[in-house]
């Protein structure tokens, strides 16, 4: 399904900053890019054909039915956050929360699995730490409208231990060309991938902004990076319009 492909590619692109982090992760950037492209190609091979309307309806019903799968409310587990009983995402480690929005749902672990990534939702702290320290990423959540046209996600990854928020601007400069090449290989047209600033948590924050066309579907995406103690939380918002992107970004607020 095209919407799953777009979500898959967006999540995969969050790996690019890790590839450029300068830490003890595999240092061969071209190798990491190859892995990104292969994952996306494998995913799109089965799913890029136009889906009949009944498949879309079935997909929407699946999201709704699986909404309760994440209802086993957990507390903070090291770097990983949790969704509380009020459907508020809270991450005490990074000091952020994401407020609920009418008509949106947290996608199930099964749907997140379509991207080839693991969810942190039901993992204990030891497993989360081992996974991240092995330079594998974990998806905290994908928060989407019913038809997957608009969504936000948070992805956890390991960075260089000495990397700080002050280093993010230069890392974005290194990451943008990798993302541009990867998106172009996947067939995006009229692509713009650039470093810019967005108001996030009430402050002007450097981010990556992507706009383009994928098989007739418009892509508008913003990625913000939070760094603390050698770990990164990549906040990605994808939406049909810039107004909707700003609306979804505004749902992220500092923990009081």
What this model shows, in words?
- The protein is of the alpha+beta class and 256 residues long.
- The chain has one domain: Mog1/PsbP, alpha/beta/alpha sandwich (Protein Transport Mog1p, Chain A, 3-Layer(aba) Sandwich), CATH 3.40.1000.
- The protein is built from 8 helices and 12 strands.
- The chain has helices spanning 2-13, 15-19, 29-47, 53-65, 109-113, 125-133, 168-185, 242-249; strands at 82-83, 89-91, 96-98, 104-106, 118-119, 138-145, 151-158, 189-200, 203-214, 217-228, 231-238, 252-254.
- Strands 4, 5, 6, 7, 8, 9, 10 and 11 form an 8-stranded mixed beta sheet that branches. A 4-stranded antiparallel beta sheet has the order 1-2-3-12, with no helix packed on it.
- α1 runs antiparallel to α3.
Give a quick summary of the entry.
This protein has 256 residues and is of the alpha+beta class. The protein is built from eight helices and twelve strands. A hairpin with a 5-residue loop joins strand 6 (138-145) and strand 7.
Intertermini distance = 39 Å
The CATH topology is: Protein Transport Mog1p, Chain A
Q: At the first level of CATH, what is the class?
A: Alpha Beta
Approximate helicity band: 25-40%
CATH H level, superfamily name: Mog1/PsbP, alpha/beta/alpha sandwich
Architecture blueprint of SSEs:
Elements: H1 2-13, H2 15-19, H3 29-47, H4 53-65, E1 82-83, E2 89-91, E3 96-98, E4 104-106, H5 109-113, E5 118-119, H6 125-133, E6 138-145, E7 151-158, H7 168-185, E8 189-200, E9 203-214, E10 217-228, E11 231-238, H8 242-249, E12 252-254
Parallel strand pairs: 5-6
Antiparallel strand pairs: 1-2, 2-3, 3-12, 4-6, 6-7, 7-11, 8-9, 9-10, 10-11
Helix pairs in contact: 1-3
